[in-house]
Specification:
Blueprint lengths: L8 H9 L5 H19 L2 E4 L1 H16 L10 E5 L26 H9 L2 E6 L33 H8 L5 E5 L6 H7 L2 E4 L20 E5 L2 H11 L27 E4 L1 H4 L5 H16 L3 E4 L7 H18 L17 H12 L2 H14 L5 H24 L2 E5 L14 H5 L6 H6 L3 E11 L2 E10 L5 H11 L3
Parallel strand pairs: 2-3, 2-4, 7-8, 7-9
Antiparallel strand pairs: 1-3, 4-6, 5-6, 5-10, 9-11, 10-11
Helix pairs in contact: 2-3, 5-6, 10-12, 10-13
Bound molecules: glutamine (GLN).
The site of glutamine has 13 residues, from loops.
Length: 476
């Protein structure tokens, strides 16, 4: 059997089609690995051993008939906020602990059509709010590189599962960095696609104008293969982009790419060794013929962060209004309907979720909406314009994915300190452009080597370019 720590989709596809091993054997190896490791890492909230084995057997029949598609028989982990018919999808919240999905998310439908194998649902910060997976109502996930540290969040379970060989690839969701940041902390590749390029139908909404399902793999090629399987227009998602918005490298193949570095954004935010790793990744590109130029992006990186932390809570407070103890999930009995609402929501939501609802309700309330929410919307347009302008003169922009490596549990108990983790990832989400985090070597903390990430940002629809640059930059 293959080494689960290094196997890629391409390798597995070859071996499966050549019958070196079966999809069932491959799935069994993953299930075995999960049994061995997940007690200590806690990447999964639930493992679907029985159905995973059935799906693998079906994949073997498809392979036998010579009809395999790119992901037939490939074992995948799914973040707990993506719906699979007949399965619990809890968004790591007590309020949805026993909620069973009644339909498949579009991405799941597409993966089922390919004959992929679903290993289980992965841990996350409740409702995708956080940056460490500490906000899960079911206990945190640990970083496979150092169990005293967080895996990042909110797709911490998905990133940890891929990094530790407990899934070949995984689906996550990224609202303000939740695929890129845990990928950076766990040492894997994570893509936030262009807003609208992957259907959000069947994704439990956090902040609808920012949410996007993303992909995590050990390599850029794996994240790419999973993206190719789930992308595309979907009439069930009103913000879905038309097929024509796809772009390929086209006639830019073979041309020298220009990479812009907005140094003033992170000049003072990085430790010396993180900064060195960033420069090394840049050098890797330079050596491969890329042209590297300094650019200006926005004057103050704290502005996008402030804008995000108005728009995100505003949309979260609106989306989470549907969890009222009547329509979905948890319901606590009481004398009056108001009491049902307040008791259910009080018992069902964790502290960070409540904080977002309070902030969101405040910034949307009459008298404050103009000063906060509308203002933030206006500044968001300026940020979008800043990216558009910068991406006219360069093909891609690069930054570190995060200010530093994985931090310790409890280290960012101050919510604002946690929000600062997102400083390099949220601007991308506000602009709706795609970005990928690729491994950028390691830094040593307390004697342990910890991965950090290199973020590559492109214009809308430029995923193919990001994959090409990412493959040149990644250090696996
Ligand atoms: N850390 C950010 C937040 O808490 C991003 C989360 C996400 O991308 N889902 O909102």
């Amino acid at each position: 059997m293959p080494d689960l720590k290094t196997i890629t989709i391409k390798r597995a596809r070859k071996s499966l089609d050549a019958k070196e091993y079966s999809a069932l054997e491959l799935t069994d190896s993953y299930l075995e690995e999960i049994r061995k490791q997940d007690d200590k890492i806690h990447a999964y909230l639930e493992v679907w051993e029985k159905t995973a084995r059935e799906e693998a057997k079906n994949a073997d029949k498809t392979i036998e008939r010579g009809e395999s598609q790119p992901l037939t028989g490939i074992p995948i982990a799914v973040k707990d906020n993506i719906l699979i018919e007949g399965r619990v999808a809890s968004a790591a919240s007590k309020i949805l602990e026993n909620y069973t999905a009644s339909y498949d998310a579009t991405v799941i439908k597409k993966l089922k059509e390919q004959g992929a194998v679903f290993l289980g649902r992965t841990n996350m910060d409740e409702f995708a709010l956080g940056a460490s997976t500490e906000n899960s109502a079911f206990g945190p996930t640990k970083n496979p590189n150092d169990l005293s540290r967080v895996p990042g969040g909110t797709s911490g379970g998905s990133a940890a599962a891929v990094a530790s060989g407990m899934a070949l690839v995984a689906l996550g969701s990224d609202t303000g960095g939740s695929v890129r940041q845990p990928s950076a902390f766990c040492g894997v590749a994570g893509l936030k696609p262009t807003y609208g390029s992957v259907s959000r139908f069947g994704l439990i909404a956090a902040a609808s104008s920012l949410d996007q399902i993303g992909t995590i793999g050990k390599t850029v090629a794996d994240a790419q293969a999973l993206f190719n399987a789930i992308r595309g227009h979907d009439e069930k998602d009103s913000t879905s982009l038309p097929e024509s918005s796809r772009s390929d490298l086209g006639n830019s193949k073979g041309r020298t790419f220009r990479i812009g570095v907005p140094r003033s954004l992170f000049a003072n935010a990085l430790a010396k060794d993180s900064s060195e790793r960033f420069e090394q990744s840049l050098e890797t590109l330079r050596v491969k013929g890329y042209e590297i130029v300094d650019i200006d992006l926005f004057a103050n990186p704290q502005v996008p962060l402030a804008v995000y932390y108005i728009i995100n809570p505003a949309e979260v407070s609106t989306n989470l209004a549907r969890f009222d103890g009547i329509r979905y999930g948890l319901s606590i009995k009481a004398e009056t309907i108001e009491e049902v609402y307040s008791k259910t929501r009080g018992a069902g939501f964790g502290p960070e979720t409540r904080r977002r609802i309070l902030v969101g309700t405040f910034v949307l309330s009459s008298g404050y909406a103009d000063a906060y929410y509308r203002r933030a919307r206006e500044v968001r347009e300026l940020i979008r314009a800043d990216f558009a302008r910068a991406l006219e003169s360069v093909d891609a922009i690069v930054t570190p994915t995060t200010p530093g490596p994985a931090f310790k549990f409890g280290e960012k108990s101050d919510p604002v300190a946690m929000y600062f983790e997102d400083i390099f990832t949220v601007p991308v989400s506000l602009a709706g452009v795609p970005a990928i985090s690729v491994p950028s070597g390691t830094v040593v903390r307390e004697g342990v080597s910890l991965p950090i990430g290199f973020q590559i940002i492109g214009t809308h629809g430029s995923e193919e370019l990001l994959f090409a640059v990412g493959k040149d930059a990644e250090r696996v």
